[in-house]
Amino acid sequence: MSTILGDSLIYEDSVRLVIKSQDIELEKITTILTAIDLSSNDFEGVILKALKDLGSLWILNLSDNNLRGDIPMEMGQLNMLEVLDLYWNHLTGKSPQELTKLNPRVSQFNTFENNSYGGNFDLCGPPLSNHCGTSDPSHVPHPLESEEEDESYFASGFT
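User: That's the sequence. What structure does it adopt?
Assistant: Structure tokens below.
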């Protein structure tokens, strides 16, 4: 099903969801704004590289979970992404330069302050002021399981 407003197509498709044993039909899904909010779900594991396949994604909220590991550089392939919320996780490693090159309107990832990445104490690199390789040498990073195991563990919350 599609709805035309003026000369532009803004609604397309419908989807059927089952949330907490309730069957919900969502009709007229907008193509103007595509958002996923997975915040506050206690998800564990790494951020899925497969998120790069969501090319029309504008907003992605993964805040307040237990995600760990690096931010995948593949996230830089989300050309439409305007909001990425990773606040309060356990992310580590260098912030991917690919994110700073995203340019939906302006290079906004370069404008984020350190508090935008709060709770990810081991995350480093631009646009953060925390430079990589300068952390406390007594701090030992959490050992990571294989990436495939972590991704399948994260994805198991969707089955």
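The two ends are 27 Å apart (CA to CA).
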